[in-house]
Amino acid sequence: MAVGVLALQGSFNEHIAVLRRIGVKGIEIRKPEQLQNVHALIIPGGESTTMAKLAEYHNLFPALREFVKMGKPVWGTCAGLIFLANKAVGQKEGGQELIGGLDCTVHRNFFGSQIQSFEAELSVPELAAKEGGPQSSRGVFIRAPAILEAGPEVEVLADYPIPSKKLTDSKSVTGNQEVKIGSKDKVIVAVRQGNLLATAFHPELTADTRWHSYFLKMMAECGDQGNFSTGGDDINDNQQQLRNDLPIFQ
């Protein structure tokens, strides 16, 4: 059984590489009919406005919405999170089309511009309970969004504290657009709602394969059966892997 990765723009190759490491085939998806050949879909990070324009050009939105409505697992990372949200704020003039399905409000560039990208250790007790390994996971945030509000059926998997100086100057955080932050000192950065998984960060850029394994197991929970080999690189053996670290958000 194969996992589709939307391959219009962004980090789709990185997701396919991680899937290969854990023994699963990833298929690049660029046309609506290709969705018929996969049982789950990853929408990668990238430039959300550009991805939306390309998806509209290829008439992908109706097929993507149908894929979600059928209950098949869909995971959105960074820009993919924006795509899955029912509501997005902080967008460029004219906005962009969304797939929807995830009961949340997301801010498109909550943490700032490209030069304000950062890395942080996130507490992930649910991920650790399901996949083993440490109680934390490295989050790579690149021009990252954040979830400001989430509905009652949305399970929060990770959140991140907002520095006090940001809280006292909401305009500097939200691109001159006043928005309500659901928690007074945190924003949500990873959620699950039924067949939908969303992360504001990029697990595919780290050595931790647990997010991908967690997503694959959602297939069985959502009704698709398959034997996935997840015997790839042990995450605990890769914690010292060399990487280009981003600064910690302060």
From TrEMBL:
Enzyme Commission number(s) from the entry: 3.5.1.2
UniProt-annotated stretches for the region Disordered: 229-250
Biological process per Gene Ontology, one example term: pyridoxine metabolic process
SUPFAM superfamilies named in the record: Class I glutamine amidotransferase-like
Pfam families: SNO (PF01174)
Domain of life of the native organism: Eukaryota
Keywords: Glutamine amidotransferase, Hydrolase, Lyase
Enzyme category, top tier: hydrolase
GO cellular component, one term: glutaminase complex
Gene3D superfamilies assigned: 3.40.50.880
Catalytic activity: L-glutamine + H2O = L-glutamate + NH4(+)
Matching InterPro entries: Class_I_gatase-like, PdxT/SNO, PdxT/SNO_CS
GO molecular function, one term: glutaminase activity
Residues that bind L-glutamine: G46, E47, S48, R108, I142, R143
Residues annotated as the enzyme's active site: C78, H202, E204
Family under the similarity heading: Belongs to the glutaminase PdxT/SNO family.
Name of the protein described by the UniProt record: glutaminase
